[in-house]
Amino acid sequence: MASEVTLVGENDGARALAADIQVEDPQDRENSEIASVSVSGLGSGKGAHSREVRRRLLPPNPEGDDTDESEDALPLPAFYVSETRFSEEERVELYCRQILAGYKAEEADEAMSKYLLEKLKTKDTWLGIWNTNPELFFASYKKELIPYVGILVQVTCKHEQTSYPLKATVSLAKRFSSNISNLPRELVEKVLEELDHCVPLLEIYPVKGQDSAVCTIAQSLEIARFFNDFLWREWDDDDDDTCTEYSALIEERIKLYYEIQDGTIPGPIGRRFQRTLQKYRNKHFELIEYQTKVKDNPSENEAVECWRKYFEVLMLSGLLKLWEDFQLRAHGPLIPRILKCRKGDRDSGSAVTHVVANVMTADMVKTFSSGTLIQQHDNLDAALENCYSGDTVIIFPGEYHAKGLAMLTDDITIKGSTKREDIIISSEPMYDSFVASKAQNLKMMHLTFIQKDTVDGIVVVKSGHLILEDCVLKCEGTGILVLTGATLTMRNCEIVGAQGPGVELYPGSVAELEGNDIHDCCSLKSCDILKHSLGGINLKVLPPPKLKLCSNHIYNNGGCGITIHQPDKRFCSEFEEALGDGAAEDQKEDGLSKEMQNLCLEIKNSKLENNIEGNIRIVN
């Protein structure tokens, strides 16, 4: 693969070398992983922007007649990749009980550096691949073509360092090797001279095949990179946590990491968290870059822009803190409020039938009565935007997207014109919600819903009453959520593939399910306790929800067929306070038992089978 890239050099003081750079295809080499792991040393994590030397990137020579006749660099050797796979408990022991024990958040750099320095004592010099940012060598380049520059170097580690992050002294190996075959050796030597031959230690990957001491160093570097990339946050230095509090925080982040990896957290939620974290780091880097360019006496526009970038970073960090502090992985996603206002009836009092189809023909409307008011739309969003209470939306065969389904507030009917398999509605991955209702009476029928990368449940009944008839709901994340005070009626529907429960009833909600198939839900990949406490239908009590089941088939679910959650300690204490301080202990226990007895669970002619954790289960 080749691309036109401008090299930066300073031969004779101010000349740039132009060359046709040949970048090796990482897939053709044994150590192709370096293309992906390079991000950990450069684009994110602690100390990613701590270079003391920053080269001035020169424009290409306008005459373009300078070439470098030096010998092509040899291919890079493979670098060491540890075969050790840490469990969650092992990582907690390593980071919280060993490396960070007794350290505050602001001292994390020091703790990690001490750990690394101890490991570096086992070997003074070794070979490594310096994996660095292309901007040190190129005035212009395409990141997708040259994501990194890798150079084989001989590493000498200083065992006594007081500044963090740690640096290593490097020099070019005798056999000049790089992932860019015709990168001039002279240019690399010049860059190293500017850096005083000192580069960040975490940018170096030990070469495979050296002795066991180097393997130990390589594994310790992987441990440090993991901490920077997945456990450390840029705002940690600003928090005034004690040593115990910081270790507990890191333990929670380790748990979050493993729950994203093993599927305990539904894929869309995990991906959204990771996207938000990466966006925060990018914005944080932009803020630092902008601040370095602003002079001592900034202009009014510069000051405003700086504050804008700062508050953008502050908002993102606040969102991420909420995400971690509320432990959404255990209690479900944070469901945003519907801010759309209810329209109500039209002033004329008439109802309109909205036809959704690319082209409308006479056959489509021949079953309509002569007095029907009809509007035709070529997309579902347009129909929903024009709806008032009492309207009907009829969707003809095809595949549709509609962000308006996440903001349903009026009492309308949405139905397919033919078989449910012919009308497919897919979610928009960029939005958090798919279908969310606050309508008093909303009806949806003869439709197939396919969830793709949305965070909330495939359908969320926030308030009011939702009726689902003859629909297929293919979940990727969570299933149907019925929030406190809301009501769901579902008949002859199919729910499949939810990573959590197929239907989850919050305290005080009501659901009537008749003739439905709920199967292959709770498809978590881990054996976490959450897997054992979820299943086809999940009920949270106090106040107890009401559930009526008739002629349903609940089968092949990863957890239980039906799971009933007893109140946790927090709810129990609130319940005891409501009974009064003077109530005896047996009265409190009797009161809680009565509340559990008040749980209205009516099962008639329903079939529960092949659910891994049993058919019905009560859990704490």
Average per-residue pLDDT, rounded, comes to: 79
Taken as a percent bin, the fraction of beta residues is 15-25%
Global morphology: elongated
Give the class from helix and strand content and strand pairing. Answer: alpha/beta
Number of strands: 33
Poorly predicted residue ranges: 1-45, 47-68, 327-338, 570-576, 581-589
First and last CA, distance: 59 Å
User: What Rg, in angstroms, do the CA atoms define?
Assistant: 30 Å
The main pleated sheet reads as:
10 strands, parallel
Strand order of the largest sheet: 10-9-11-13-16-19-22-25-28-31
Query: Given the structure, what is the number of helices?
Result: 13
Percent range of helical residues? 25-40%
Structure description:
The protein is an alpha/beta fold and 620 residues long. The protein contains 13 helices and 33 strands. Helix 7 (267-293) packs antiparallel against helix 8. The protein is elongated.
Provide the fold topology.
Elements (H helix, E strand, L loop, with lengths): L1 E6 L10 E5 L11 H9 L45 H12 L8 H13 L4 E8 L5 E3 L8 E8 L10 E6 L12 H10 L3 E3 L3 E3 L5 H20 L11 H19 L5 H27 L6 H26 L2 H4 L20 E5 L16 E5 L2 H6 L6 E4 L2 E4 L11 E4 L6 E4 L8 E3 L4 E4 L2 E3 L8 E3 L3 E5 L2 E3 L5 E3 L4 E5 L2 E3 L6 E3 L4 E5 L2 E3 L9 H5 L1 E6 L5 E5 L2 E3 L4 E6 L3 H11 L5 H13 L2 E5 L2 E3 L6 E4 L1
Parallel strand pairs: 9-10, 9-11, 11-13, 12-14, 13-16, 14-17, 15-18, 16-19, 17-20, 18-21, 19-22, 20-23, 21-24, 22-25, 23-26, 24-27, 25-28, 26-29, 27-30, 28-31, 29-32, 30-33
Antiparallel strand pairs: 1-2, 1-4, 3-5, 3-8, 5-6, 6-7
Helix pairs in contact: 2-6, 3-5, 7-8
